[in-house]
Write a structure and sequence with these properties.
Blueprint: H1 3-15, H2 22-45, H3 51-56, H4 63-107
């Protein structure tokens, strides 16, 4: 319920070149990337099809199915993670500029 509206708000504000959306997009990117991590952990923990898994009744993946799922989930980890890192750097520049301005004002 959080990610879909934030996607549209973020896209609109980025289109309008509004820095006020940076904190929201930092949170969105981090939230989305960490949501995908349990899915990937489950995918890696599920065994590949073998005689042992079939005998044990464990529902396995074929290596093709695992690769297909990986290729589906990986962009949902990588893109939001890159977005979170980018927004963190952008916000860091604002904080540095504010700190310098405050120091200059205090010095005068």
């Amino acid at each position: 319920s959080f990610q879909l509206p934030v996607f549209f708000i973020g896209a609109y504000k980025l289109w309008k070149d509004s820095p006020s959306v940076y904190p929201l997009l930092l949170f969105y990117g981090a939230s989305t990337a960490t949501t995908v991590l349990p899915c990937l952990a489950t995918l890696f923990a599920t065994p590949i099809t073998s005689a042992e898994t079939m005998a044990a009744g464990v529902p396995p993946f074929t290596s093709f199915q695992q690769l297909l799922l990986l290729s589906s989930y990986f962009p949902f980890l990588l893109i939001p993670l890159m977005m979170a890192v980018d927004m963190a750097f952008r916000l860091s520049k604002f904080v540095q500029a504010g700190t310098l301005a405050a120091a200059k004002k205090k010095a005068t």
